[in-house]
Amino acid sequence: MALAEPLPTGEEQQGPETAAREVILGYPTLRSHILHKVKRETLPKVGLLIVVITIFLAIFGPLIAPYNTIAATNLVNKAPSAAHWFGTDASGLDIFSRVIAAPRIDVSIALLATALALIVGSAIGLFATFYGGWLGALAIRATDTLQAFPALILAIIVVVLTGHGIGNIIVVIAVLNMPLYARLMRGEVLRISGRAFVEAARASGLSDFAIAWRQVLPNATAPIVAQMSVTIGWAILATAGLSFLGAGVLPPTPEWGSMISSGASEIILGQWWPSVFPGIAMALTVFGFAVVADTIQTALGREG
Amino acid sequence: MLFEVSELSVEYQSLDEISRAVSNVSLEVGSGEVVGIVGESGCGKSTLALALLGLTRRNARITAGSVRLEGTDLVGGGLTDKQLRQFRGRRIGLITQNARSSLNPTVRIGKQIATVYATHTGAKKADAKSAAIAALRLVGINDPEHRYEAYPHELSGGMAQRAVIAMATVCRPDVVVADEATSRLDVTIQAQILDDLQRAVQEVGSSLVLITQDLGVIANYADRLYVMNAGEIVETAPTARLFEAPGHPASVSLLESQLDLSDAEFRLRGLPVDARKLPEGCWLQARCPFMDDKAGCRTAHPELSDVGDGHEVRCHRTSVVLDRAAELTR
Q1: Does residue A134 belong to any structural domain of this protein?
Q2: How far does CA A18 lie from the centroid of its chain?
Q3: Before A252, cis peptide (omega within 30)?
Q4: Which residue of A240, A293, B1, B205 is 20 to 30 Å from A46, comparing CA positions?
């Protein structure tokens, strides 16, 4: 359980055995720290609400959209009205429908890319560091090298070369974020493998793999979890950025970046709504994930 | 002999300096016996404890000697890593100092004990759980079914130490090595834990190697004592004999600290000798109140020599020390 890592309370329980049950219930866990923050402060509440809404829309958005999101109509470039809250775009598509349908693509890409980056990056960091040797050193240096490239430019080049498929976008964003997780994990492994319980595990005859898996990994999850929300936000931005530049998801699929892009040319004609609404939606989403990341980090005692 | 260590040496390497933490240590532990290893802090006790399982810290290595359990050498026997792991935790259990940090903070203690058991026996989950609960009960933990679910930070220091003892004994090993098992606990708990440890070890039929810096702790438990200083064994004798007639300045010093005398005339002076620059002659020469140039303390390194009744001392001045110590203990 990643979130169950206890925080030191500075209080030693020395009481008799009978007090055990209260003790077990009484200690604050990371989860309770986060819940406490969410309950007491406004900003974490807002962040959490945004994240929940975004995920809800990623699942149900296209289903609850009031208009068809990809079939063009004659009602082109209409300003926001009671029928079309966010107006319509140059192809006569309802912008509100497209804005709430977009998380299906944007958030899915971000979540999958983050999951892939997290799993592969952490695995590289864990095993390369734990087992060491020249192979481990090589893996860590390779990820370091990857980090030296300007991320978005590399992403554009790769997507242009390999094609616009959603799979490609996911892989590119994942690969760009992998080094972060590898390095975070490396730091944690170096910190943890000197600890007494790792030595104790070795003295109990556990294998290297068991030690890496059972002793090191569960103690290394906290900063990784915090990083996860940051990466999701970044990945949403990157997906939208790629699409804005025409290197990502292509119209008419509802996607914030491409919507901003196709609306951009009309802003000069006073038609601001095709770009501004998806822009606000995206900004809010990234903000929401950033707030959640910050909340977790503060709860971990690492001021973000 | 069940467990036999001979001429074991461990060296730490840092940059280009080598420090000898354990030098030519030989000791024997019979079946069911309780053996004590005593020495001031920094004399190589913990390094020795790990080396008894064929383990070292990352920057150290075992440079010579053997550790034999029923004849199988864990050090120079050419065993594979996998074969060695079948000894660690299963046939030799290690209880490390500072119990709470020896437990994985993210895993329930019962689960940690069950994992050790399952690793070595291949037992099913339910069987491993009941073995872990039995081990917890054996070390005097009340309501072990409930305690099984506790995380390390939810336990008191004494409880955590008991959990570590349970982890070291769950596989019913032949030998249990306890490195400063009680030094971080307060005095009242120390005795309880040692009693629980002794009972658990008797119950599972293990021998016990008790490593401590506190001679008082060990007096009631050990059958035989080894006194360590600067990484080597400087004296060994049956416990009662060592208390009556200590023959080495290091032993006298430990004993005197124990007696809490105000005029500590025989106490070793200053800090432990720098293991990177061991002097010619006796390694204690700079600290020893009995040092005498004429006896060769500065020129010849003393060997362990038998003074009768299984009592061996590594000192050029044993006869003088024995005489003076006789006054002290009287």
Answers
A1: yes
A2: 44
A3: yes
A4: A240
Per-position pLDDT tens, chain B of length 330: 899 999 999 999 888 888 999 999 999 999 999 999 999 888 889 999 999 999 998 889 999 999 999 989 999 888 888 999 999 999 999 998 888 889 998 899 999 999 999 999 998 999 999 999 999 999 989 899 999 999 998 888 889 999 999 999 999 999 999 998 887 788 888 888 999 999 999 988 999 999 998 888 888 899 999 999 999 999 999 999 998 889 999 998 888 877 766 666 777 888 888 888 888 889 988 888 888 888 888 999 999 999 988 899 999 998 888 888 777 766
d(CA B239, CA B242): 5
What SS3 state is found at B19?
strand
8 Å CB contact of A200 and B167 = yes
Whether B154 and B249 share a structural domain: no
- Interface confidence, given as ipTM, is 0.86
Asked, for residue A13, whether it belongs to a domain, the answer is: no
Range of the domain at A120: 48-62+105-299
**Residue B186 is assigned to a structural domain of this protein:** no
Q: Is B148 on the interface with A (CB under 8 A)?
A: no
The reply to whether A15 falls in a domain is no
How many distinct structural domains can be found in chain A? 1
Q: Across the interface, do B90 and A210 touch by the CB < 8 Å criterion?
A: no
B319 is a domain residue? yes
Q: Which helix (H) or strand (E) holds B317?
A: none
B146–A205 C-beta distance less than 8 A: no
Contacts of A200 in chain B (CB under 8 A): 94, 96, 102-103, 164, 167
A17/B225 Cα distance (integer angstroms): 35
Interface probe, candidates A7, A192, A197, A216, chain B, greatest B C-beta count within 10 A:
A197
Q: What's the length of chain A?
A: 304
Bridge-based pairing of strands B92-95 and B207-212 is unpaired
In chain A, residues 26-85 whose CB comes closer than 8 Å to chain B: 27
Instruction: Give the nearest partner residue to B106 out of A17, A20, A218, using CB atoms.
Output: A218
Same domain, B158 and B248: no
Both B100 and B170 in one domain: the answer is yes
CA distance B141 to chain A (A): 8
Pinpoint the alpha helices (H) of B172-268.
187-204, 215-219, 239-244, 249-259
The whole domain housing B162 covers 95-175+198-206
CA pair distance B275, A196, nearest whole angstrom: 24
The reply to whether A25 touches chain B by the CB within 8 Å rule is no
Of A6, A20, A196, the CB nearest to B101: A196
What CATH number should be reported for the domain holding residue A155? 1.10.3720.10
Q: Does A5 touch chain B (CB under 8 A)?
A: yes
B81 falls within a domain: no
Q: How many domains does chain B have?
A: 2
Please tell me which of the candidates A17, A196, A206 has its beta carbon nearest to residue B96.
A196
Beta bridge partner(s), residue B208: B34, B176
Residue B190 lies in a domain: no
Pick the residue from chain B with its C-alpha nearest to A9.
B153
Asked whether residue A67 is assigned to any structural domain, the reply reads no
